Amino acid sequence: MTMIVSLKNEDLTVKINQIGAELISVKNSHQLEYIWEANPNYWKRHAPILFPMVGRLKNDEYNYDGKTYTMYQHGFARDSKFEIIDSNDTKVIFLLKSNSKTMKIYPFRFELFVTYILVGDTLQIQMLVKNQDEHSMYFSIGAHPGFKVPINPDEESYSDYELVIKPEKNYSLIELNKNGLTTSNQSKFSIDGNPIKISHELFRDDARIFDVEANKQTTFTLKSKKSHHGVSLTAYKNKYFGVWSTYPTKSEFVCIEPWWGIADSENSTGFIRNKNDISRLCCGEEFVANFDITFF
């Protein structure tokens, strides 16, 4: 039986699915919903955890130790049933362990802990990877939360929203080709105090991928100019942020995605050891990825 875990305080009520350890609902004290409803006509997910890959592999495959493995976009964690190892009114810890099924497509023994902690109007999320193998493991990890835009359709519209990025500086934008692989083309995007206007055309060429150069912390704030509702996502030491919605289909959500990893290059050799920004853990080591979401 699959469980939905609820966290609650005076400010927010949060629901998380045991499948994928996926955040599926956040409501404020006035019952305003912030998380995308996962309408399958547009995008069937709410806020998946991306592991052990972020983005797409070239030909949906990789090579490790002389063997070729098939793995589809964003990995398998989002469709896996996690254990619930601890929970109370404001905190829950989920665990996914490698097993015979995962070993067939990802030959590494691991533990993935996903922790949610509710503090006031902020949800703190930690993703911790442990290498339980006798040799090094290779992985990427990220999150893909989708937020309702508009949050309050009675007061505002999609075009009332804007994106504010801190710190303000020049960022490189990474381009994806039609197969979802990174290209060598990059452009500079200057954040000089002017917010980015949210429009469906913004996503004409797929996700907008910002290289944030592993800042100590980077904050992407998605907010309405009209109602002043929004979300603010702060990630720590991640290399990339993706901002995405469907196109040309016009849907009412925007994803703000902290990534510790990225899709394959269109020139990828397929060897996982050489993958773009792959993380490597030696035997017994741990990797921690943290981000917070504030709802207002």
Automatic annotation (TrEMBL):
It comes from the Bacteria. Gene3D superfamilies: 2.70.98.10. GO terms for molecular function: carbohydrate binding; isomerase activity. GO terms for biological process: carbohydrate metabolic process. This is Aldose 1-epimerase family protein. The lineage of its organism: Bacteria, Bacillati, Bacillota, Bacilli, Lactobacillales.
